[in-house]
Amino acid sequence: MADMQAFRDAVRDWAKGGPGGPASDLAGRLGVRTAVLLEGPSDLAAVEALAARRGRDLATEGVCVVPMGGAMSIGRYAGLLGPPGLGLRLAGLCDVGEQRFYDRGLKRARAPHRDFFVCVRDLEDELIRALGTARVEEIVQAEGDLRAWQTLLHQPAHHGRPRQEQLRRFLGTKKGRKIRYGRLLVEALGPEQVPPPLDNLLRCL
């Protein structure tokens, strides 16, 4: 049975220059009405974790969360999935430093900006600030990553840097860590701690 992962795979192949037919066929079969465009898989993990916490099954609602592999791909994905392509409603998150790419890409695709929400730096930074550094360090210890965290802290390049910046750097130092902690940090949030960009995204879907 076709599922949203198959649709994501078909969209990725289409974005790389493959045929659009498979993605179009799957969109119809799955009832896809909205594509949530995100920079990468760690953002995907966070969005899906918050949806699950709120008892939502995005796939059955016709919502597909699509990691694009970087902000500079927004024009390509918006063109394929938005008004010039499949005509899906588009939503998403972007980092403030990448907002210019989103502005250009969405304008070129004639897609509205209203359902795209901007993180101050990136989603990891938003989650660390929401939880507080002490709580994030507790999660790191509970996950068995204390030794790796302490190793980073002892590196001269990180001496004297703000704790939040050290944690943000730690999440990006090993392949797969940002994805794992994207889910873990969301699961640790209290109801009133959800960062506004992430909260607003889920509410608009």
Topology:
Layout lengths: L3 H12 L5 H10 L3 E5 L2 H13 L9 E5 L6 H8 L7 E7 L3 H10 L7 E4 L3 H9 L1 H10 L3 H8 L9 H9 L5 H12 L7 H9 L1
Parallel strand pairs: 1-2, 1-3, 3-4
Can you walk me through this structure?
The structure is a single chain. The protein has 205 residues and is of the alpha/beta class. The protein has eleven helices and four strands, in the order ααβαβαβαβαααααα. The chain has a four-stranded parallel β-sheet with strand order 2-1-3-4, with helices on both faces. Strand 1, helix 3 and strand 2 (63-67) form a beta-alpha-beta unit. Helix 4 packs parallel to helix 5 (99-108). The protein is elongated, with a radius of gyration of 18 Å. The model has no long low-confidence stretch (mean pLDDT 96).
Assign a percent range to the helix content.
40-55%
What value does the Rg take, in angstroms? 18 Å
Structural class: alpha/beta
**Overall pLDDT metric:** 96
Cα end-to-end separation: 24 Å
Strand order of the largest sheet: 2-1-3-4
DSSP helical segment count: 11
Biggest beta-sheet profile: 4 strands, parallel
Please provide the ordered H/E string of secondary-structure elements.
Answer: HHEHEHEHEHHHHHH
Unreliably modeled segments: none
Global shape? elongated
Strand content: 5-15%
The total of beta strands comes to 4
